[in-house]
Specification:
The chain has about 160 residues and is an alpha/beta fold. The protein has five helices and five strands; from the N terminus they run H-E-E-H-H-E-H-E-E-H.
Length: about 160
């Protein structure tokens, strides 16, 4: 069984839930020993909170579930490359690894623009894997933003 694909598909389900609620469609799943310990999607609009990204919500949920501020041995699967805030939170929570689908060439902080998650000057570094189900992850984001840019023509 390919656990990475299975867990990224679960993250995509979370991203679809965000899409259905008119949130930027990003989903995240955190695993420990190949078991899901947290899942979340963006809730910025619902909570009126600019920090309510899928990654942050999943970290909070996992810490509560595991009763620990450190998420040692945990792996996050997320549909979009984390931003600086989220990559910093991954480092602070001390996850083992992050796997993301679509790269973010504007604000990606794991590989595209910055390398926060693996920066050697920080007290913790994560393994970073990219591109898993990138087409599916990117298509959901493109569909969301494409619909936002298309003016309604009344039809």
């Amino acid at each position: 069984m390919n656990y990475d694909l299975m867990f990224m598909r679960e993250a995509l389900k979370e991203a679809q839930a965000a899409f259905d609620r008119d949130e930027v469609p990003v989903g995240a799943v955190i695993t420990l020993d190949n078991h899901i310990v947290a899942r979340a999607h963006n809730q910025v609009e619902l909570l009126k909170d600019p920090t309510a990204h899928a990654e942050i919500l999943a970290i909070t949920q996992a810490a509560n579930s595991l009763k620990s501020k450190w998420l040692l041995g945990c792996k996050m699967y997320v549909t979009l490359e984390p931003c600086c805030m989220c990559a910093g939170a991954l480092v602070l929570a001390r996850l083992k690894a992050v796997v993301f689908g679509a790269a973010d060439p504007k604000t990606g902080a794991c590989q595209s623009v910055f390398r926060v998650a693996s920066h050697p000057a920080l007290n913790h570094q994560l393994d970073v894997e990219s591109g898993l189900l990138s087409e599916e992850c990117g298509a959901l984001l493109s569909g969301f933003f494409g619909a936002k840019r298309t003016p309604s023509n009344g039809k």
